Amino acid sequence: MGKLINEARFEVGLSADILSYYADYSEEFLKPEELSDAPGSVVKTAPIGVILAIEPWNFPYYQVARVAAPQLIAGNVLMMKHAPNVPQCALAFASLFSQAGAPEGVYTNLFCSNEQTEMLIDDFRVRGVTLTGSEHAGTSVGGRAGQDLKKVVLELGGSDPFIILEDAPLDTALGRVVS
């Protein structure tokens, strides 16, 4: 997708770490939790069904890993709409899940238009939608999903601050800010 090789390697490594983390701790995350304030009450994690994820081009592996790992361990089915300019990243993830033994249909790539995506959001079988994108996209997706009271997670644009601590090597930090 046009990233510097060291940044691309970092993203792939981070994505692998995320997948490993959820694999290692899935049983702990899914364990029923008794509520101390309400004796006899237990919180249980249960799948809700099909989740539609709409992800951007700029971190095509990381964005998938951070969404797919928790959804799949929770037992949800994931339909992933990648940005159209990173189809090879989408195919790589599908191959990864297939090689790992995921049942067919648990993770599905979607190569569809915005209009087709709107139809998917409206589909009664889609129980939740997650989007990483612009405020405009978030307004559109969130509003559409909200009409049917579907669960929605929106991570919308913005510019993150870059904080350089006093003990940081200034040349390295500045190099990262500018690159």
From TrEMBL:
| Transmembrane residue ranges | none
Query: What top-level branch of life does the organism fall under?
Result: Bacteria
Q: Keyword annotations for this protein?
A: Oxidoreductase
Q: What is its EC number?
A: 1.2.1.16, 1.2.1.24
The residue ranges of the Aldehyde dehydrogenase domain are: 1-178
According to its UniProt record, what is one Pfam family this protein matches? Aldedh
Molecular function per GO: succinate-semialdehyde dehydrogenase (NAD+) activity
Q: Which InterPro entries match?
A: Ald_DH/histidinol_DH, Ald_DH_N, Aldehyde_DH_dom, GABD/Sad-like
**Gene3D superfamilies, per database record:** Aldehyde Dehydrogenase, Chain A, domain 1
Instruction: Please name the PANTHER family in this protein's record.
Output: SUCCINATE SEMIALDEHYDE DEHYDROGENASE [NAD(P)+] SAD, SUCCINATE-SEMIALDEHYDE DEHYDROGENASE [NADP(+)]
Report what the protein is called.
Answer: Succinate-semialdehyde dehydrogenase [NAD]
The organism encoding this protein is Acetobacter tropicalis
